[in-house]
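ok trying this again, last paste got cut off
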Amino acid sequence: MPYEKYETVIGLEVHIQLATASKAFCGDENKFAGSPNTQISPISLAHPGTLPRLNERQVAYAVRLGLALGCRINPLNRFDRKNYFYADLPKGYQITQQDEPVCLGGGMEIITPDYTRNIRIHHIHMEEDAGKSTHDAYPDNTVVDLNRAGVPLLELVTEPDFRSAEEVDIFMNSMRQLVRYLEISDGNMEEGSMRCDCNISVRLKGSETFGNRCEIKNVNSMRFARRAIQYEVKRQIDLIESGGEVLQQTLNFDPVTGKTSPLRSKEDAHDYRYFPDPDLPPVALSEDYIEKIREQQPPLPWDLKQKFQEEYGLSEYDARLLTERKKDALLFMDCCGDSKHFKQLANLFINKIKTHQKESPDTVFTKKQLTEFVELIAANQINITVANQQLFPAMAAAPEKSVKKLAEEMNLFQSDDGDFLDGLITEVLAKNPDKVKAYKNGKKNLLQMFMGQVMRNAKGKADPKKLQELLREHLES
């Protein structure tokens, strides 16, 4: 099949579950993994006579995300009812925003090894989640857990700007990083905190006309998203090439078979019978309110990455690794205010701290500890290998102790004492008379062999610069 003739076109609908204490329109607890049907109330169960009440924090989180993505914040917000029947939707409708969403426009850059592309955002709107239906727990029944019903969501809708599964992967990882930086969601796709619907179509390269699109619903893993997109693109091209037509459908992806299958014909807006929710008044957002949130915005990952490259002279690779988590990035930046050994600090964070925190995530490192550690190495007071292998574990185990004090107690400081080094050198040279003779006959590269042996005998306590100087004197005398 001539797949290279076709261009893939993808748009995303990203659902972000917000980390608020309560649900969107009632006071039910909002947390993951509670016992089924325990985080519910008459409001989330849609008992007659109950009324919704807006969660102010959901609005603030929506504005926070919109500002980070360069969106225009809509000063007047209205809520609508999206009507459809399903067992995990107690009211028979979902409270959402159809005509006047909270954020409009904006975009996010994705960076691939070969190019940078701006993905445009159409809008972001506020809504509530449905409950969760489980179809495979029992052979003859579906069970429904309504703990998730009413959980506050933001739905971010992109323009159809993606051209591959790899671009979708980069965008979703960047979005997860962003919501964690903003502290509006934990972004855990495995727990359903972030999900995406993928709208996929294909067209001949060079064509400006979009093909019929199919929507793959509720993909909660980037591995599954890549597989689903790749399968669906191939399916659509094969269908077109064989003379068939792609029907506009909503699809399910089965990770076991790796295939998509139809759920239903794709609905249009009129099928949901949207109308303004009469129980929720419009929400007016003043310029002062928006500006106050803007002033409270944390540094964003791409801004920190640029700062680390431009001000600290780090490589793109180092800067990217250092900005993966906001906590690490801010601590690194704080350390750079007290120490100018930026590259050594970066190496410490990337090679030691990240690895250690995977094994012991509760370890807390302080700026004072880390800058002291790096300064001891930079001042050539402690050998870098000894520092990494011995001092770092001791520092992690005793965060209350001065790093310098620890090094003293462990007798790790390097020595430039001439008598101490002379004794070590004499011992090594006496054991290697043939190699001493070879050195004197011109094999100068043997110097490193002698250096290595003396350093081993010194157990990392020899100052390499002073040692090399004395070793040359002994060999050339």
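PB: full thing came through this time. The chain is about 40% helix and 20% strand.
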